[in-house]
Amino acid sequence: MLNKISDSIYYLSNQDDRERPVLGLVCGEEASLIIDCGNSPQHAKEFLAEISKLDVPPVKYAVITHAHWDHFMGMNEFDAMAVVNTETDGLLQKWQSLSYGDSSLQTYVNSGFMNAKCMEVLQEDMPNRETFKLKPSDIIFEKTLVIDLGNKKCVLEKIRSTHTDDSTIVYIPDDKVIFLGDAAYGTTTNTLFHIKQPLLLPMIQDIQKYDAEWSVLGHESICDREEMELYWKELIAASAAAESASVEAGEENFKVQNNREPNGNELFFIKAFANDHVIRHQQ
Ligand SMILES: [Zn+2]
After folding, report:
1. Distance 66 CA to ligand 1 centre (A)
2. pTM above the 0.90 mark?
């Protein structure tokens, strides 16, 4: 079942055990737009089945928030124009050239290009993959793009992000709703989870310039204004404390700077920022 945020905005919840992210739907008077295409054709079909239960205009645009497989592998199922930023387009071209038979998938996993969960999901959800080809993008934008669905504007922007360098967000001014994809998360490099510290404040600046009552995150559905403000506050405090690769030093700094122990989230963030020091010194 789709969750309803407003009269024109819905989302399908994430499903963590199958690595399925949140999928969004925005409806105007003439057309609809989806945010992310699902992690497999099966996921996309289930989303389309839910959309068909609503009396809404046809899906004309499919925005892919970034080039991580779980957000785009279902894109062929939509009879819609795929909308991406130039950087995402560049990354997707590699996936368009791939073959999806079992031995090819295994090769990509062995080389580290594809993660094992991606192979597992594709093998489970797509029994016939031998001739599968991912379709190309249709609308490619550099920095920002406004799409009018008929009395309903969607603002797309490629923002600075702690997750990837190709993160697109979608803001719907009428409803004060923002879809963040995975932009606000950290990332994993060489099996180490880290949050790109130099990008934290620029990212928050890019996101907070939109007046959002509701924020939809890629893998945990929806947050209200207060929850997002708390999330940013905890991240900023953790980042200010994490001055080096040492988690212990980060914890100590936190106590001095805030006159209290870090909570569970803050401790998790301090570790992720300390890991970022490790990663940056490797480069
Ligand atoms: Zn991602």
Report:
1. 7
2. yes
